[in-house]
Q: What sequence folds into this?
């Protein structure tokens, strides 16, 4: 990278940091009187929450009714759903809450329509399903990604491996070579946030944007599936192309095509695992599992379906399926 390119990257990084800070203040004002991005008042229920997001008339309400037997007012015209409609889907012993959110429009992250409420509710989801019309261009997908990114939702990304702590003294430590940004840019961004004394450990080759996300601290990293509806109205060649896209599922709500596969992919994307409980001297009840996220920790005795239960500590990580003995007095 030449001197001119480094200087441009440095000033661009500083500009991005300022824009990110101002945008965060607009979306999440600190004063109680500010119009923060408050979501719809829908209680979280079940083992996981899945948010259905899309432009109007892409079939979200129809999908909700097909998967959960929940009736949501639908019509062929736009802007039918005006609030969040919840439903519960049961699969593999898990109760998964589906939220049909109102269709959003371009500019939703700035408050157009009910967009701010939609994206605020989406932040509470464990998985986002972006509903797309297979008969329309890919521009719809790009616009939805822009709206979600603008409010701090990072789709199909993991949190950067950066440790940040405020200190009275401190410094910057990197364990990898930085090729997408540099220490000068990072130190300047820290100074723009008035962070002159802190410990920062960077353990992967991050970008300037990713470092700013860590500083903001309110970003949500949520898995996402792109669901292309109305495949009955396009050619087989286009169906094949869409189906092969990463994190994509093709369906037809009207004809109930491929809905079973979509449910399977929702389960896989949520990363849920089943834990079966048992009392001393009794066989585990395999009909009523407790569903946890992969990597969750439990306390009890784990047998992994072996005849001899073994003690597990508080930091025992749950595998795909576990049997845990619950000892009661």
A:
């Amino acid at each position: 990278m030449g001197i001119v390119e480094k200087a441009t990257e440095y000033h661009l990084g500083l500009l991005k940091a300022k824009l990110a800070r101002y945008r965060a203040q607009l979306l999440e004002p600190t004063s109680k009187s500010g119009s923060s991005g408050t979501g719809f008042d829908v209680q979280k229920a079940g083992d996981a929450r899945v948010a259905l997001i899309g432009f109007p008339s892409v079939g979200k309400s129809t999908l909700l009714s097909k998967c959960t037997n929940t009736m949501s007012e639908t019509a062929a015209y736009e802007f039918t759903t005006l609030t969040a409609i919840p439903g519960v889907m049961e699969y593999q012993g898990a109760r998964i809450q589906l939220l049909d959110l109102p269709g959003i429009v371009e500019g939703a992250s700035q408050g157009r329509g009910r967009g701010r409420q939609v994206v605020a509710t989406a932040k509470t989801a464990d998985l986002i399903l972006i509903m797309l019309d297979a008969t329309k261009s890919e521009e719809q997908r790009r616009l939805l990604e822009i709206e979600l990114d603008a409010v701090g939702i990072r789709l199909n990304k993991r949190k950067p491996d950066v440790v940040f702590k405020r200190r009275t003294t401190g410094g910057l430590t990197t364990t990898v070579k930085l090729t997408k940004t540099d220490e000068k840019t990072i130190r300047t961004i820290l100074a723009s946030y008035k962070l002159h004394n802190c410990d920062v450990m960077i353990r992967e080759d991050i970008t300037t944007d990713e470092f700013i996300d860590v500083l903001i601290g309110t970003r949500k990293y949520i898995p996402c599936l792109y669901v292309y509806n109305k495949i009955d109205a396009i050619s087989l060649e286009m169906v094949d192309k869409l189906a092969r896209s990463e994190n994509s599922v093709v369906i037809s709500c009207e004809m109930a095509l491929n809905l079973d596969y979509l449910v399977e992919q929702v389960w896989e994307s949520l990363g849920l695992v089943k834990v079966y409980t048992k009392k001393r001297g009794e066989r585990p009840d395999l009909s009523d599992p407790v569903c946890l996220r992969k990597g969750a920790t439990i306390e009890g005795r784990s047998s992994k379906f072996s005849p001899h239960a073994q003690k597990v500590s508080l930091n025992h990580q749950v595998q795909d399926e576990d049997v845990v003995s619950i000892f009661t007095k």
Residues 61 and 72 are 6 Å apart (CA to CA). Residues 3-29+160-216 form one domain. Residues 29-36, 74-80, 305-314 have pLDDT under 50 and may be disordered.
